[in-house]
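Letters spell out the chain; the tokens describe the backbone. To illustrate:

===
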Amino acid sequence: MTTSAPIDIGLVENDAAFWLIVAECFGVEVPTFQGEGPSCGHPALFIRLSRCNLTCTKCDTKYTWDWSQFDPHKESTKRTVADLVAWAASSPVELVVITGGEPLLQQARLVPLIRGLLAAGKRVEFETNGTLAPFPKLVVDGVRFNVSPKLASFGMDEAKSVVPAALEAFVATGRAAFKFVASSVADLDRVAELADAHRLAPVWVMPEGTTADAITETTRVLADAVAARRWHFTTRLHVLAFADARGR
């Protein structure tokens, strides 16, 4: 199994013909919502980029990186910045969520995409695992980062998934929320340790689960402890509404 390295940031950034490796785009033809985090419930468009630098066993988008199970030639395509901007601009929906995989692997080529989306009147949220510091030219008005460090319980060695320098860079932007997938109160104790160690705020907790029943059960396990810490709590609306269907 292979992972990808970040694209060289020496690229010419204003070339709209630059391409990105994309797993899927959705929300224009069939409307949907941002399913989690600070903008949960907001109408949204999604650009899901392919490739990831982590290999979490509980990942629900393995088709973006796990080539032992999926064919990268079938699961990803190259699309130009101009094409992606035109696709998003065809919809009146304001929020564009750029997710993955790990989108910041391609962040140099995301600079012209962000410029185009903002010029089209969009606002942008990145869903990132928080292991790669954001390129400074992405830290601009109209862009927010939903940073989701992966705990050991999510099936990832924290020596790889928790990168202090990157987390501190996100904190310094003033444009990040820190969203943790949790399944137990013990997970919340680990979240508290990370939040204290790296000054992570605001903290959002999301119950693990890919079915409505699992999310409901985990929500009830976590709710009192999240409330006691005065953190934010988010569901997974796309799972509750669309049964975790791909492209919703």
